Structure formats: structure tokens, C-alpha cells
Amino acid sequence: MLSLVATGFVADGRFDPSGIPEVFGQDRTWRVIGQTVLQAGCATVLSVLLGLPAAYVLYRLEFPGRALLRGFLTIPFVLPTVVVGVAFSALLGVGGPLEGLGLDRSFVGVVAALAFFNVTVVARTVGGFWARLDDRSVMAARVLGAGAIRAWCSVTLPALRPAIASAGALVFLFSSTSFGVVLILGGREFANVETEIYRLTVQFLDLRGAAVLSLAQFAIVGAALAVSARLRASGERAVELGAEPRREQRPGLRDLPVCLVFGATVLLLHALPIAALLARSLRTSDGAWTLEHYAALVDDASTLPIEGSVPAAIWLSLRIAAVAAALAMILGMIIALVLSRRPRSRVLQRGMHLFDGLVMLPLGVSAVTLGFGLLLTMHRPLGIGIDLRTSIVLIPIAQALVALPLVVRTLLPVLRGIDQRLRIAASSLGADPLTVLRTIDLPMLGRSAGLALGFAFAVSLGEFGATSFLVRPGEQTLPVVVAELIGHQAPGSYGAGLAGAVLLGALAAGVMLLADRLRTDQRGEF
Prior knowledge:
By secondary structure, the chain is mostly helical. The protein is built from 22 helices and 2 strands. The relative contact order is 0.13.
């Protein structure tokens, strides 16, 4: 990141800040920045409005199949951005069931696709908080004559405000750094900072202009990360002061409106685009049902406009994702163990907060920017006699960095929940720090480590932003292959891209469903 920033201030080996006024003096730069903020803001509002009913249904009501439904709602968050972009294109584009609405390549389509990912973030973050709120204040308000709506607005909503604000900050962060969705659905007209950096780098080789534009993204991301960290901390304090998780209630007639909103969200926002993608991958241009698009994926590679073959891309993606997940787990466990400690010194406490923010940086800084930065710095790094930019080894490194914050956020609540007295007792009985780690901390992680591993693998498998910078011809991952097929005009290319998107989505969803069965902590923090 530092090298990327320096590129915007250096020309011909000398300090030259003239690129900054040159880039920020262009009308398109401010149009792209405004478009980024507007897309992220609208997606945040929509995600919160739809995520609150989902949080209530999944965390306040008790009904058969709730755990399975929670698992399914996690899938949209980890689906590859390429798959979601292609799914909404299949739904809204030419030949799609909603083609008549004219929403293809539109602002509304981009915002809806961003909300597709982030309703889950709101539901999990707010739901885990909501499940631990004390109901006695609401009951007191009802006894004093307040109706259900007034009691919710005057008591519950203010109590939920830290969690809602924290979730909103995260949604804004994710939406402002979205790449694959905006690239596929927005095009040049609705470009954001992320896609503009990619366009300047790949199409125009304007590295300095891209680096300068990254400064705007750093400002947006830095503000969102700071707000998110502060609000998350206040949310954690509020949970600690609250009661134990309440006893869930059975759905009643008064819950019907909320359940209807939640059902409409799942069916229209989540299920409909995926169903449209699956249906169109099984049909020809004249409407006949067929498997020829899937057959094209395993046929002779010369029939598709890509270098290499799709089976080779799938195998490469699985291998790279496995390595990236292993790296993310090793680093994530170490970092989570460090961040779970609560030092008494204020200096150390501030240092921990700073370290926490640095760990979250790969999640906030766009994957495209991360890939761009790796390209700038990995020319014989640390004196190594190998140019890593020409090696495929950079891809699992980049993917591990992208997955690392999710691993930390999955393991950290479990480690922070361990009673410190257990560690003190073990130490007083003669256990050294490594023995305490082996006998207390690691066993407590248990199945949550499996969930974190599933998160890391699914995210790495579908990573597109940084990978699109780092892949080499003939050694492309499945998300990159799908994007190439969708954007190519060759006969059969679009159908094969749809089929490839279905396979990629099925792989990521299967991994996530398997991993979510290992969840033991439902506090909602990713």
C-alpha cells in the first residue's frame, strides 16, 4: 500500500506531486468518486432495511429449520462476485425474465446486487446482538401502555443502534470496494473507484493515475474502517452489559408482516437471480433445454475463446484456494490469539487497537488495489533472486490476505469468551505459556476453526479482484475464466460462462454450507 501511494508522488525517480491535481482535476474522477459513494450509500440503506427483518426472524423467532436457513443466508456473502454479477445479468439482461424492466446495466441493478451480498452482514451482526438484549425494558414499556411498534421504536431500536451502525459501516465498506459486480453490471457508465483503477492500469497502463485514484479510495476506506472499529467496540461493550440470550418465541400473527418481508427478500433478492442463472445455463438461445453449455466446459479447449481448459482452471482454483486457506488459518490463529489478550497498559491497549485495524486493512482496501500493490513491490522482494510477479505464487498470497480478516473475526469472539481465570489457574499449576495454549486456547477454538477454514477456502476460491491482476496466460482461475467467457462475443461463449458460473457458485456454496454446520458461536461477527 505504501509503494502504491508513493507511485502517485514520484515521477522519473523524483518527488513530483503534480499527478494529484492532474487526476483530481478531471471531471470523470469526481464522477467516479461520487458514483462510488452513492452506490455504497444506497446499498447500505437497502441492506439495513432488508437485514433487520432477517435478523428478527433468524435470531428472535424459533421454528423448525432455522439453523439450516441461517446457513443458507450465509451463502450470498461468500458467493464469488463474478457469479453474482453473472446471475443478475442473466436475470435483468437480454433474454432474462426481467428484461422488460430495463434494469440491465443500470444503477438499480448494481445496488440490488450489492445488497444481495450485504443483507447477510446486517442479519448476522444485528441478529447476534439482538439475541442478547434484555426484554424487561420492552415489557415495562408495554405494561405502561406502549404498543408493539412504539415499544420497538422507543426501546429496542435505540438499544440496537450500535449494532446497526456497525453493520452499516461494514456494508458501506464492502460496497465501496466492490469490483466484480460493478465491472459486470455497471460497465463504464456506472464505474466505481475500483473498476476505474483496473481500467487505468490494464487498458491504459496509467499506473500513476491509478495510484493517485487509490488515494481517494484510501480516504473512503479509512473513514469506514475507523467508524466500524469504534462502533464494533461500543457494540461489544453493550453486549457485555446485557443479559444472557433470551428464550426465542414461536412466530405469531403479529410477526406475519416481518416474516413476509424476510420471505420476499430471500425469494426475490437471493433466490430469483440464482434461479435465473441456473435456468439460462440449461437453455439454448431459442429456449430449448440442453446440457450443451456444460458439455462445452469439458470439450476440446479450442471450442472456447480462452487459453487453457476449464477443468484445468477448476483444478488450479482448488489448489490455490487450499494453499491460501492454509496460510490464512495459520496467520489468523496467531493474530486472533494476540488480539484476544487484554493488557492493562493503556499504551498496549492502543497498540492492540492499531494492530487490529492493520489486520483489517486487506478487507477494507480493495482487492484490486491489493493486487496492484503486489505487482509494484514483488520484483525480487527482500533480495530474493526471483521476480515473483511472473510466478503464480503471488495469487495464494493475495487470496490469503483477503481471507485473513474473516478468519480473525471468526476466531476472535471465541478466544475473547474464554474465562481468563482458566489461564491463570493453569499457570499457577506450573503450565508454561505453550502448555496453556495447547490445553486451553486451541481446544476452545474447536469447531469454530473449521468454520474459519471454510470461510477462507470459499472466499479464496471465488476471489476475482486481486487474482485478475496476477494470473498468467494459460494459468487462469475459474472466476477469471468465467469473466472472460461472459464478456466474449464468440458463439457459445456466453452459455459456457453461465455454466461455469453455476459450477463456481455450487463449489463455494457447498464449502460454506459444510463449514457453517461447524458453527458453535452465533454472535454474528464475521
